[in-house]
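yo

u said u wanted the structure for the complex thing, so here. seqs first:
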Amino acid sequence: MENFVNERIDQVLKRFPDCCHCSRCRQDILVLALNHLPPRYCSSNNGEVYTRLDLYDTQQEAEIFQEITKAVEIVSSHPRHAI
Ligand SMILES: [Zn+2]
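structre next:
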């Protein structure tokens, strides 16, 4: 199954060319975004985090996009590693 949130992160990162796109920062963005989304959007299984596509709708997409954008802003201003 394709990771819904990861696809959205790709889309958001295109709008933030200054943000680091490495796998570590992407992981930070993913965790931050999911932390701020209601638990109904995602579940954790064997450490993998994924969204429940059966609950997907337009309102939720807007909310997910908003949280990913915030997470990108946080990670890009506080990267966890030297550039
Ligand atoms: Zn990075």
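Residues 8 and 65 are 7 Å apart (CA to CA). Residues 20, 22, 24-25, 79, 81 surround zinc ion (CB under 6 Å).
cya
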